Amino acid sequence: MANMREIRSRKKSIQDIMKITNAMYLISSSKLKKARKNLLAAEPYFEKLQFTIHDILVRTPHVHQVYFQRREDIKQEDRKKGYIVITADKGLAGAYNHNVIKRAEEEMGKSNNNYLFVVGQVGRQYFKRKNVLVDTEFLYTAQNPTLYRAQLISETIINLFEKGELDDVYVIYTKMITSIRAEVQFARLLPLERVKFERRASGYQHARFEPSPEEVMNHLVPNYIKGLLYGVLIESFSSEQNDRMMAMEAATQSAKDMLRELDLLYNRARQASITQEITEIVSGARSLKK
Amino acid sequence: MAKTFQLEILASDHPFYKGECEMLIFPGLDGEHGILANHESMVTCLNAGELRFLVDGNWQYAAVSAGFVEIMPSYVVLLADTVERPEEIDINRANEAKRRAQEKLRQKQSIMEYYHTEAAMNRAMSRLKVTKRHTKA
Lengths: 290, 137
Prior knowledge:
- By secondary structure, chain A is α/β, with parallel strands linked by helices.
- Chain A has helices spanning 4-59, 96-108, 121-129, 147-162, 197-202, 213-289; strands spanning 81-86, 114-119, 168-178, 181-190, 208-210.
- Chain A has a domain at 49-245: Pyruvate Kinase, Chain: A, domain 1.
- Chain A contains 6 helices and 5 strands.
- In chain A, strands 2-1-3-4 form a 4-stranded mixed β-sheet.
- In chain A, strand 1 (81-86), helix 2 and strand 2 (114-119) form a beta-alpha-beta unit.
- Chain B has 2 helices and 10 strands; from the N terminus they run ββββββββββαα.
- Chain B is globular and about 50 Å long.
- Chains A and B meet through helix 1, strand 5 and helix 6 of A and strand 1, strand 5 and strand 8 of B.
């Protein structure tokens, strides 16, 4: 049986860690409240944006426009693929970072020309350790996403795409499905795909584009990508907070369980030592009597 | 009662308006566009400026920034980065933003920075314009 001093110091260290996990739980739950509010405010826009773009793409006549270039002449293995990976700035968020990174690696395994654009410190450090090429000037935090940051990111990406330094652009992020379930999402940003078959089937008419389809797309696509990235950042940020909250709640709970067990052990050790002392005293007194 | 169409205005940070509307006037790339019910289907972009829409005979005003509009015969969807009512706009902030942009425009900048500043300037100007016109000082 472990001695009392050992158990006591172990209890102390668990209690100290529990204080930290509990504080982190409280912090992330208050951050989550804020992030959830932002998410609720931005979600209608985000969803309508995707829906409307889909609707517009169905009605778009064929245009020779840079955002639609699929560059099919480039062979599959030579295509330069860009991935925007959204991770957290800090760890201790359960499997949040792990899931995103795992998905990113899975996708990266499919081709050789990968360009990574990582949002968040954890992902950046991870890929750096693995000696994967990461765009070093792409430094954005995952905290409190703003439309302005989404704009900077989308400008960088669109610029690279226009120059032909990227042929496909994907985004990997986490979406909160319910408050207890988050899922990693993988979506293509560029090039855009016109939906041909659906249109033929349902007899959609082409819409008029004012002043011209090219001009409209020149404005619309950057705007769409900005809005999409904003939505993606907000989704990820709130699922990060949610995951961290749950991880810390679980950690606090298991600290409590451990403490309960150690309490039992400690009491047993204390009783044993008292019993032993009494036995010693009694036997000592008896030997004196003789 | 004039003919109406379903209008939905969404800003990136909140849904702004959803409901019937008789007429919508928004700032396009090449000047203002006016939309009535049964308009031909059209897709176009939005510039920073003043937005007006007629509901039950009353004009409502808002300042918008960049975005786009999808117009269908029976409904219109307008998506913009920001949409604000005149009374929501902080005049001091807009003035400050305008002054900052003016100062920046005097400095040497890269083309990208120049576009950013110009857009910021436009936003500030349109906010000021909308508040000046539609709030009673």
